[in-house]
Write a structure and sequence with these properties.
The complex is a heterodimer of chains A (262) and B (270). Chain A is mainly α. Chain A has helices at 2-30, 34-41, 44-77, 83-95, 98-109, 129-139, 142-155, 158-165, 170-199, 202-208, 218-227, 231-255. Chain A is globular and about 70 Å long. Chain B folds into two domains: 1-44; 48-269, Orthogonal Bundle (MetI-like fold). The chains are: A mainly alpha (262), B mainly alpha (270).
């Protein structure tokens, strides 16, 4: 009996909080017909916003993947003073408000900031692509590191040491032994990083200046459409983002370590 | 001789490779994360930090943020544990889909999360419920984005937990509630606390999901992140920086707490 009460309660909670609201956005987007929704997302401004969002992800995700693997290796395989601090800093973007991230970048690269002089030399960071990429890199930094660290710990160094004694170079050891062992964790981390990079709102909102048709990403476009009383446009763009999110969830299932399905 | 030279050479390249890795890793982290945060703390220093942090609007926003995040964390502790239990111990058709659904708030852009809730619980919603621009709406938005934390923290621990002890207790006459309270709950507690702490931190900092649905009314539904954004828009950079430094301090405190819960859990495992 208690089992059924719990099951019903858990499923009702999920339905009211997640499933029905997301379903309703799909319904609202298509209630005036598919053609209407298509027109809304194929407008010049919406297409530009989507392209910009994907471009930022295409820069931030590979950067965080490569440096994420290097960071994870440094955290697990080496000991150095300040390792505990590095460990804490890696987690910080998970616990910090994206608006604070945006403000920090704004103060660093803005007028009077330590690196504010860059703008005078023609290197525009704020209200331009570099600032938006930096903000996205900040907020999506932990995911690859956090997925790879436990796997590295678990596999240990026996095989790596064996390969090394047999004459393999460090690069060969990584390519032939370490990477094959961590690749699924990397893939999982990449999916999470991509989802975060595409959906980022707060940090990008602060540093982008939100110039329509120039520095507006798809999540920013959703807000500006909604606030401009173009709700169908906002719903249609939301559906595009929700489809990317659903693809992410499916990707996570595919890459997830199998033990959780037990 | 030649063999000696090779043996001597190899560790050296490995060491320099590791040193390079450390250098690159800490350099990247410093440039992307530490330098901006240092600039933030630097900007907030000075005489008017306290004046800015104690402005009535700032204090109201901070108080509301902490209160709503605390309620959100509590609801998550109960609902998240119940969902994790249902997903691990219960069997029903479609369980795999429900399990996958839990990750949706991680994957869905926060602004879309806010918009979906507004569509259902805002003006013109199909159930005739309109909580837009109230604190209830704020809580709903935070519950949406923080849903996965407790579930995903508790699930693996519950999977690993042997049912033998529970069966033994049940066979000795313990009621289901007593079994949960005396056996299951103490084992899950470190995981629940880690999940709750992450959910709390996320709720304190959330911006995208609340910006549409809360209405951002000062002293009523304006949370700290929205306040910071507003101050920056109106040119009060030191006011935005002051409250940001406080949020940064809260985040650091939560991370320290999570580290402590994690050590507690490993001690229990050992």
């Amino acid at each position: 009996m208690a089992r059924y009460v719990l099951r019903f309660g858990a499923l009702a909670y999920l339905a009211l909080l997640l499933l029905v609201p997301v379903g309703l956005v799909f319904y609202r987007a298509f209630e005036h017909g598919f053609g209407h929704a298509w027109d809304a997302v194929s407008s010049h401004q919406a297409v530009h916003a989507l392209e910009l969002t994907l471009l930022i992800a295409a820069i931030a995700v590979p950067a965080n993947t490569i440096f994420g693997i290097v960071l994870a290796l440094a955290l697990v395989r080496t000991r150095f003073p300040g390792r505990g601090l590095v460990n804490a800093v890696v987690d910080l973007p998970l616990a910090l408000s994206p608006v604070v991230v945006g403000l920090a970048l704004f103060l660093l690269y803005g007028r009077g900031g330590w690196l504010g002089g860059l703008a005078g030399h023609g290197i525009k960071i704020l209200f331009a692509l570099p600032g938006m990429v930096l903000a996205t890199m900040f907020v999506s930094l932990p995911f690859v590191v956090r997925e790879v660290v436990p796997v590295l710990r678990e596999i240990g160094t026996d095989q790596e040491q064996a390969a090394e004694t047999l004459g393999a170079s460090p690069l060969q050891v990584f390519r032939r032994i370490t990477f094959p062992a961590i690749r699924w964790a990397v893939a999982y981390g990449v999916v999470l990083t991509t989802a975060r990079a595409i959906g980022e709102f707060g940090a990008v909102s602060v540093v982008s200046g939100r110039i329509e048709g120039k520095t507006e990403t798809l999540p920013l476009y959703v807000q500006s459409r909604f606030e401009g009383f173009d709700t169908p446009g906002a719903y249609a763009a939301s559906v595009v983002l929700a489809l990317i999110a659903i693809a992410t969830v499916v990707g996570l299932r595919a890459f997830h370590p199998r033990e959780e399905t037990g | 001789m030649a063999a000696d030279a090779v043996v001597l050479e190899r560790p050296r390249t490995a060491v320099s490779g590791a040193a390079l890795g450390k250098g690159v890793a800490t350099g990247y982290l410093s440039l992307v994360v530490l330098l901006p945060l240092a600039a933030l703390v630097w900007s907030a220093r000075g005489g008017d930090f306290w004046d800015q942090a104690t402005r009535p609007e700032a204090v109201a926003a901070l108080k509301l943020t902490l209160a709503v995040a605390a309620v959100c964390a509590l609801v998550n502790a109960v609902a998240g544990t119940a969902i994790a239990w249902t997903l691990v111990r219960d069997r029903f058709p479609g369980k795999g889909i429900v399990d996958a659904l839990i990750d949706l708030p991680f994957a869905l852009p926060t602004i879309v999360a806010g918009l979906t809730l507004l569509a259902l619980y805002g003006p013109g919603g199909p159930f005739g419920i309109n909580v837009a621009f109230t604190r209830t709406a704020l809580l709903l938005a935070l519950l949406f984005v923080t849903l996965p934390f407790v579930v995903r923290a508790v699930q693996p621990v519950l999977l690993e937990l042997d049912t033998e002890m529970e069966e033994a207790a049940a066979s000795l006459g313990a009621r289901p509630l007593a079994v949960f309270r005396r056996i299951v709950f103490p084992n899950l507690l470190p995981a629940i606390l880690s999940g709750v702490a992450l959910a709390f931190a996320r709720a304190v900092g959330e911006f995208g999901a609340v910006v549409l649905i809360s209405g951002n009314l000062p002293f009523k539904t304006e949370v700290a992140s929205v306040y910071i954004f507003g101050q920056l828009q109106s040119g009060n950079e030191s006011g935005a920086a002051a409250v940001s430094v406080l949020l940064l301090a809260i985040s650091l405190a939560v991370l320290l707490a999570i580290g402590a819960f994690r050590r507690w859990r490993t001690r229990h495992d050992g």
